[in-house]
Design a protein that fits this description.
Largest sheet: 2 strands, parallel
Order of helices and strands: HHHHHHHHHHEHHHEHHH
Structural class: mainly alpha
Helix content: 55-70%
Shape: globular
Distance between the termini: 25 Å
Strand content: under 5%
Radius of gyration: 22 Å
């Protein structure tokens, strides 16, 4: 139990779980050709942007071609990582039985290998979302992002650390996926890690060769500006994906949990933890597409293998569910979410920052305990028991 769930009984939580299962079953039972056409259309568009970007950068000596080429390639990389790669690797499109669009065969345009990312993200993060000691995504081992994290002098510089992480985000994630902190903690040796390091190094080498050698070389006299165009496109992708992921996981209101929370945790309790530990970004359909629909982070954490194009259809139902049961539904425009995250990182860089953040978190509860109790009485009169 946390302050946001103490007004709920075990039966309440099980009803929440039953309603969420019903939402999932309804969607998954109606997947069909329209959904398949959606992901194939996105893949075609992404490849079109990439081809256009590569062609334009052949003439990168000309400023308009450089700007248009870098922008087009950057959009292609964002689409590939966010709406395609991330979601395909979650198994969202495995139901199509298409060997080219499948979680076991897709290799994305990223330094991290698909298999290593699936281990740290699909398994560790999505299973143990926001649980201290289990979910390594809390601060990515370099940031103090939660009030419960002990302060250390190195955090004084974490605003700069965070900026550097945003610029090289794919490399930061690749290093994070290697779990090199296991060596420092004595859980593994460098010899144990060397096979993974070699695989990651080969992937990183191929990425660098493609973006910074092969394609720039094809441009002949435009080699240097074409290389810079590829670097700019990757930086665009890194900064954007960093912003989207941080908005979905680290706003002030998002909750974290102790490891004891996992003891005998039911599926319904897992659902509740996902809702409390995630946040959404409000915006246009284009924004949702460019975030890989991770703007619906709450719905994604509830149903990580549900096709991303369906999140917008279930979001109102999940929001209403939270309202009826007196649970917070964290959502806001991107400027508000990201601004809050950056403020939180800056505030937690100092020893006493956790007290300020804790007060903000308490104020974010949905109307306080009295309002929650009132909602419960209303719910008991109006909400039918789950079938």
């Amino acid at each position: 139990m946390t302050a946001s769930t103490e007004h709920l009984s075990v039966e309440d939580i099980e009803r929440i779980g039953a309603e969420l299962e019903a939402i999932r079953d309804e969607v998954m039972s109606t997947l069909g050709e329209a959904d398949a056409q959606y992901i194939r259309r996105v893949i075609r568009s992404q490849r079109g942007f990439e081809i256009a970007g590569r062609i334009l950068l052949l003439g990168a000596l000309f400023p308009p071609a450089f700007v248009a080429g870098a922008a087009s390639l950057g959009i292609a990389k964002i689409l590939e990582n966010m709406e395609i790669g991330h979601n395909v690797l979650h198994g969202q499109w495995d139901w199509m039985r298409d060997p080219e669009i499948h979680s076991t065969t897709w290799e994305w345009d990223h330094v991290s290998t698909a298999s290593s990312w699936q281990q740290t993200h699909n398994y560790l993060h999505h299973t143990y979302t926001n649980v201290h000691g289990k979910d390594r995504d809390i601060g990515y081992n370099v940031l103090r992002i939660d009030p419960d994290q002990p302060w250390h002098p190195r955090y004084l510089f974490q605003t700069v650390t965070n900026l550097g992480l945003a610029l090289i985000f794919e490399y930061g994630i690749a290093a994070f996926d290697l779990e090199l902190d296991d060596v420092a903690n004595g859980k593994a040796t460098w010899r144990d890690k060397m096979p993974e390091i070699k695989v990651m190094a080969r992937k990183a080498g191929k990425q660098a060769l493609k973006d910074y050698v092969v394609f720039p070389a094809l441009s002949g006299p435009s080699f240097v500006p074409a290389l810079l165009g590829g670097l700019l496109a990757n930086t665009m992708r890194n900064v954007w994906s960093h912003a989207v992921i941080f908005c979905g996981h680290f706003p002030v209101e998002v909750e974290t949990f102790d490891e004891e929370r996992l003891e005998n945790e039911s599926q319904a309790e897992w659902y509740v933890r996902q809702m409390l530990g995630s946040a959404n970004i409000e915006g246009s359909p284009l924004l949702h597409l460019m975030t890989g629909n991770l703007s619906h982070q709450i719905e994604h954490h509830l149903f990580p293998d549900m096709p991303s194009n369906r999140y917008r259809t279930i979001a109102p139902k999940v929001r209403d569910l939270c309202r009826r049961y007196g649970l917070p539904y964290h959502a806001g425009p991107m400027y508000k979410q990201y601004g809050g995250v950056l403020w939180k990182i800056a505030r937690l860089s100092f020893p006493g920052g956790h007290e300020t953040i804790a007060r903000r978190q308490r104020k974010a509860l949905p109307g306080g305990r009295l309002a929650a109790a009132t909602l419960r009485r209303l719910r008991d009169r109006t909400v039918p028991a789950a079938a």
